[in-house]
Structure formats: C-alpha cells, structure tokens
TrEMBL record:
<dbReference type="InterPro" id="IPR012951">
    <property type="entry name" value="BBE"/>
</dbReference>
<dbReference type="InterPro" id="IPR036318">
    <property type="entry name" value="FAD-bd_PCMH-like_sf"/>
</dbReference>
<dbReference type="Pfam" id="PF01565">
    <property type="entry name" value="FAD_binding_4"/>
</dbReference>
<dbReference type="InterPro" id="IPR050416">
    <property type="entry name" value="FAD-linked_Oxidoreductase"/>
</dbReference>
<keyword id="KW-0732">Signal</keyword>
<dbReference type="GO" id="GO:0016491">
    <property type="term" value="F:oxidoreductase activity"/>
</dbReference>
<protein>
    <recommendedName>
        <fullName>FAD-binding PCMH-type domain-containing protein</fullName>
    </recommendedName>
</protein>
<keyword id="KW-0560">Oxidoreductase</keyword>
<dbReference type="Pfam" id="PF08031">
    <property type="entry name" value="BBE"/>
</dbReference>
<comment type="similarity">
    <text>Belongs to the oxygen-dependent FAD-linked oxidoreductase family.</text>
</comment>
<dbReference type="InterPro" id="IPR006094">
    <property type="entry name" value="Oxid_FAD_bind_N"/>
</dbReference>
<dbReference type="InterPro" id="IPR016167">
    <property type="entry name" value="FAD-bd_PCMH_sub1"/>
</dbReference>
<feature type="signal peptide">
    <location>
        <begin position="1"/>
        <end position="21"/>
    </location>
</feature>
<dbReference type="InterPro" id="IPR016166">
    <property type="entry name" value="FAD-bd_PCMH"/>
</dbReference>
<dbReference type="GO" id="GO:0071949">
    <property type="term" value="F:FAD binding"/>
</dbReference>
<keyword id="KW-0274">FAD</keyword>
<keyword id="KW-0285">Flavoprotein</keyword>
Length: 484
C-alpha cells in the first residue's frame, strides 16, 4: 500500500514539475529581450567578457530588457534545475558573470536612465556603461555621480563592489552614493532595498553585492553638480627616476586637498628593456586652478638622487568629465591575471620591491603583452566613513595597488600566472585587504577575509536571510568555502 502511495506521489510531483517548468521556446516567446542559445551566431560574442583567459560555455544567455523578464529568466533556470550567473558589463577579472552550463542573465541591455532635478536623484538600470551614464547626466543635466573612470565598465558590477573614479575623493564611492536598489531575489520576488525597506539587504549590497544576494536591476544615486571642464594631467618620467617619482607622489598625497586625485602606473611592454612610468593628476574644481596643485609634479626635489626631477612629458587636458572618460584609456579585452591589495604604506622598501618586480616581469616577443602596476588613490571621502557604514570595509589605507598582466598567446599563461603569484606573495605582508572589484582566485587563500574583513559575518547572516537555499552560489559567493 505504502509503495503504491509513494509511486503516486512521485508521478504527481513529476507531473507538477513538468507542468510548471518553462521551456526555452516559451521563454523566448514571453521575454521582453533576447535569448541566445548555444547555436545562435551571437553566442560566442556574448559569452566572453573582459578576461579572455576564461573560456566558459553556459547553457544559454538571456538578455532581458526589463525586471519582469529577469524574473522570467530566473523562472526558466529554476524550473529546469539550472543555476544562474549574472553579468552586467562583463569586466569581472575572474569572469564571474559567465559560468559553464548555467543560464547567464546578462543585464547589459537594460539601459533606462532618468534624472529628477527635484530630488536630485539619478535612476539607472544596471546595464548602462559609465560613459553612457555620464553622457546622459553630464551632457543633459550637468550632474554626475561617482562611477567608473573607464568608458566600458558597467553600473552593475562596479557599484555593487565599491566603485571609484576621479570624483570619489570629494563625493565618495559609487556605492556610498546609492540611495535605493531594486532587486530580484532567489524566490523571484522583486524588492526595494533602501534605508527604510530591507535595510540589511541595502547595507550588504553596497560593497558585498557580488556575493549572491540577488539580481540588482535598478539603482538610484545621489547626483552632484559638475564643472563644465576639468584639469587633468598625464605625466611621464624616466624609468631611472622611478624611486624619486613614487616617493614624491606618496609624500604629496599625504597633504594634498581632497579635490586632487592621483593615479600612478608603471608597466613593462614585453619587449621593452625598461618599464615605463606615468602619473595622472586630476583636479576636481575650476579647471584654471588645477595647475596650482598638479604643477608640483613638473619639477621637484628628488630624495633618492638629491637632484631635481623633471618629467619626460607633461600633457594637460581641460575637458568635460564625459569627454575625459570617453577619450580615456579603455584597455582591450585580452587574457589577463589581476591581483592586488591595499598597501599599508609606500615605504622605501616597498618602492624598491615594486621597481624590481616590474624589471623581472616576463618577456615575450609581443609589445602588446604587458605587466603593470596601478596605484589608485582611494583617499578623501572614500575613507571618511566608518568601516561598517556599508559592506565596503576598506576605509583605512588609501593606496589600492592592482597588478595586471594582459597578454595574447595561451603559451604565456603559465609564465604570467607564476609571476603574478610571486608578486602577490611579495607584497602580502605590506598589505591589508583586497578590493573586491578586482577579485582574484589564484592567490587568495581566504578571499572572504580579504574582501570583507570584519564585515563578513554580518554578510553571511544576511545572505542566509535573503537566499536561504543558497541558490545564488558560485566560487566567491558569500558563504562558499570551495568552488561551488
Ligand atoms: C577596463 C577596466 C576598468 C575598470 N575601471 C574601474 C574604475 O574606474 N573604478 C573602479 O572602482 N573599478 C574599475 N574596474 C573594476 C570594476 O569595478 C569591476 O571589474 C566591476 O565588477 C565590473 O563590473 P561589470 O558590471 O562591468 O562586470 P561584470 O563582470 O558583469 O560583473 C562583475 C561582478 O558583479 C556581478 N554583477 C554584475 N551585475 C550585477 C547585478 N546587476 N546584480 C548582481 N550582481 C551583478 C557579476 O556577477 C560579477 O560577479 C575596472 C575594471 C576593468 C577591467
């Protein structure tokens, strides 16, 4: 009798499952957006992001145009026993938005944007690239919110992990400017997260938003007035002056006003004997005043060599912030390794180690293969908040160091992989924490501690509350201990 009952229940549940599962043709017919199957000519393009080292093949890629279609894509995945991954701009250093055999929910085509001058709030869907946001807010409304400094990075991933650009030293991180989010949860409900509604989710998504809490479809940001043009200098120096330049940059940063932003970079093209070194100095104020700060880099007294250091070139642009970003560098998508950390200080020892490490970077026959160190200044308003203000914890040390190798040619993968690992280990003891917007799965023994530090336990309990079955799971989702 019992056996008959069990059989009956099984048949019934099978029937219910089949009746409720959404088929791919049904999804394609009902969705406002696009379904890109493996046989579609667009599939190959759509599955790659910024890092070509990852060659993953998802089950299907869905590009919704509205929130209801995001829910539908999720329904398709869940009723077919599939997991999802979420992609906005595809810039994740570890290609977390595209996973093998999953349904990729690709938000990149959700681009609605508006600005309300009364509340002074910018509302944008997750798929806009930052250059598209600036084009709208700056060119049409003379306002902006801090976002990305490269044109192709998207609102979704950048904001959920922190997000800094030249405005951030005055206005804070992108995530600090978020006042509300629209989120699709694992149970397919659409919720609002802000200071009053789901405040714990609101806290978690701002800095911990890559961790698998839900799919964020819409952001509301505080807006700030912009100047018509900004002073921005791109300055290069001789490699022989490396120690003096970096030492001076670090000294200068300690007393500069908040409206100056610095970005220091040194790189070695594979066939170059010596690396190159450059500095960007940006002034967030009337552009005619920029020289009063950034002019300091034209001629300064070197500490190492006890002589005056002058640049090999000093180019100044005065342009709108939209133009600055649009015409700025947007590194090409290639195979790459990224690894970084916040430096506790840039001591003489650290300066020397950086120089030596770049000089020891691998050589290949191709100029376009590069090994690079980027030092992003993350000071001013980015640090003027408590470490638990939201899930973004890195409020203590301002120099964010990011090592990046970018290459063409699979044969170089092992060599570059070894070099980046060695580099990470060299600077580990001089560092505290890793910026979650440059995730690293090759070097971090404990990524949760590195990205979220003391905020991690709170993130874990919020994750359990909003995704109790851990449906949104992947290698570096909150709570995972190994590759899920
Ligand atoms: C060329 C380049 C320039 C950069 N410039 C800057 C910069 O100026 N400032 C800065 O702070 N950082 C910068 N970054 C780092 C950047 O912030 C991260 O790579 C960011 O995660 C990219 O977001 P994305 O949407 O483009 O990428 P994606 O790969 O699409 O997303 C990144 C992560 O966020 C998740 N995600 C994306 N959208 C959603 C969503 N809507 N809901 C839930 N999860 C989502 C993805 O699953 C993935 O884990 C840059 C990176 C690159 C490669």
């Amino acid at each position: 009798m019992n056996k008959i009952l069990i059989l009956f229940v099984c048949v019934l549940s099978c029937f219910i499952y089949t009746a409720e599962s959404l088929t791919l043709p049904q999804l394609t017919a009902q969705i406002n957006g696009k379904v890109i199957s493996q046989s579609s000519p667009d599939f190959n393009n759509a599955r790659f992001g910024y890092n070509y080292r990852y060659n993953r093949v998802p089950q299907v890629i869905v590009q919704p145009l509205d929130t209801a279609s995001v829910v539908l894509a999720l329904e398709y995945a869940q009723t077919n026993n599939l997991l999802v991954s979420v992609k906005s701009g595809g810039h994740s250093a570890i290609a977390e938005g595209v996973q093998d055999l999953r349904v990729v929910i690709d938000i990149s085509q959700m681009k609605q944007i508006s600005y309300d001058p009364v509340s002074n709030i910018i509302t944008t869907q997750s798929g806009n690239k930052w250059v598209e946001v600036y084009n709208y807010t700056i060119n049409q409304h003379q306002v902006a919110t801090p976002g990305g400094s490269c044109p192709s990075v998207s609102v979704g991933g950048l904001t959920l992990g922190g997000g800094a650009n030249d405005f951030s030293t005055v206005y804070g991180l992108a995530t600090d400017n978020v006042v509300e989010l629209e989120v699709v949860l694992a149970n397919r409900s659409i919720v609002i997260a802000n200071a009053d509604s789901n405040p714990d989710l609101f806290w978690a998504l701002r800095g911990g938003g890559h961790g698998g809490f839900g799919i964020v479809t819409k952001f509301k940001f505080n807006a700030h007035p912009v100047f018509p043009t900004y002073y921005s200098a791109w300055i290069t120096y001789s490699w022989a002056d490396f120690e003096d330049v970096l030492t001076f940059v670090n000294q200068f940063s300690k007393t500069m006003p908040n409206n100056v932003n610095l970005y220091f970079t040194a790189w070695r093209s594979s066939n170059a004997t010596n690396p190159s070194v450059a500095l960007s100095c940006f002034y967030n104020g009337p552009s005619q005043l920029g020289e009063s700060q950034c002019g300091a880099f034209r001629n300064f007294s070197g500490i190492e060599k006890n002589t005056f250091i002058t640049p090999t070139s000093f180019g100044v642009t005065n342009a709108s912030y939209y133009e600055t970003v649009k015409n700025g560098t947007d590194p090409k998508a290639r195979s790459s390794y990224t690894s970084g950390s916040f430096l506790v200080d840039i001591t003489k020892q650290v300066v020397n180690k950086i120089k030596t490490q770049l000089e020891k970077s691998p050589l290949t026959p191709y100029t376009f293969n590069t090994a690079r160190l980027n030092l992003y200044w993350q000071g001013g308003e980015m640090l003027n908040k408590a470490r638990d203000y939201n899930a973004y914890v890195h409020r203590t040390y301002p120099w964010n160091s990011v090592w990046l190798v970018s290459y063409v040619g699979q044969e170089f993968e092992e060599t570059y992989g070894k070099w980046i690992k060695q580099t990470y280990r060299k600077f580990e003891s001089y560092s505290s924490g890793v910026y979650q917007n440059y995730p690293d799965e090759n070097n971090l023994d404990n990524w949760a501690e590195a990205y979220y530090m003391e905020n991690y336990p709170r993130l874990q309990s919020i994750k359990i509350a909003y995704d109790p079955t851990n449906y949104f799971r992947f290698a570096q989702s909150i709570g995972s201990t190994s590759s899920d």
